[in-house]
Amino acid sequence: MSxxxxxxxxxxxxxxxxxxxxxWATQILGDLGADVIKIEKPGAGDDTRGxxxxxxxxxxxxDSDAAYYLAANRNKRSVTIDFAKPEGxxxxxxxxxxxxxxxxxxxxxxxxxxxxxYESLRAANPSLxxxxxxxxxxxxxxxxxxxxxxxxxxxxxxxxxxxxxxGEPMKSAVAVADLFTGMYAVTAILAALRHAExxxxxxxxxxxxxxxxxxxxxxxxxxxxxxxxxxxxLGNAHASIAPYQVFPTSDGHVVxxxxxDEQFHHFCAAANLPLADDPRFARNAxxxxxxxxxxxxxxxxxxxxxxxxxxxxxxAASVPCGPINTLPQVFADxxxxxxxxxxxxxxxxxxxxxxxxxxxxxxxxxxxxRRAPPLLGEDTEDTLRELLSVGEADxxxxxxxxxx
Length: 404
Hints:
The chain folds into 2 domains: 12-216 and 336-400, Rossmann fold; 244-323, formyl-coa transferase, domain 3 (2-Layer Sandwich), CATH 3.30.1540.10. Helices cover 36% and strands 15% of the residues. It is built from 16 helices and 13 strands. The model has no long low-confidence stretch (mean pLDDT 95).
């Protein structure tokens, strides 16, 4: 526990999300100091608690929660409430006025039947920032469809651009549509919170995986809009820059990431390659056109020496490059360790878990790791006592009815 200042201290989030995009967003808000109350189904919890193996181990050696769950649920309380039951929905309606932010990722319109939609809750809390994260958004012909990262990478064009030129289109190994959506959601929430603090006026935020996937096509999406030419898969090569790809070495691989003509000249000098004055390669636009010949010439030289030689030689020449690290190599890298990218936290049952830390660095209000990812329902009674003054007789009745 740290006593440092937090940017979102005093802000409370009612988190009705599960799986990845929503929990990723609320974890970031929690890292920045918000009090995040994660609502989970009694006896089951977030789906990702069971998305393993691998599972972390309890002190007695038994399986605990899946690693997937731990990745996105730091700095949260876990409160179990079944809001499909009228008593559970009533508890959430009572909690909402105590919160400045609500995040949910149910199907479009799915919370209305419980009275937990934006229009219902804003009556009691007009300044509420209510963020809905869905696969396809609140409007449009696909609005009612469920959406998962894999299918969104496919439908949103990313898979058509990923993979070798010949073969099956590939998804990203990391759920980038979910993660980008979570990041866009945080940006929107913080902007809406600023507006609410100035005016007292809350709002409904509509963030969808497909919208975010289309937006994150970035330069490749813009290339199509500008040229009306469909980009093709280039494997590990770059559509607009060369050389910017993987090259085999005598004992592995090196990523060469030459971003401008000056760096290319430095590379040619370091590699003793007479290419810098060749009109086919002197400028980036020409190198892109002649990428096949360029790659063949560079590859013939780089295959002769080991990866360590090329990393040392090219770094000395200020040529951007890097090895392709495995995860054991990443998490043992001295720079990764020096930056504090890994942290160890202890859960309330004394499980120790190693987590990737929030990557933001701030001089005055840095992200803080205050709570390890919670055990299912561990904060239910304390939270309901604190915010709603629920008494023992009420707890007994609620548990008897399966609400908690």
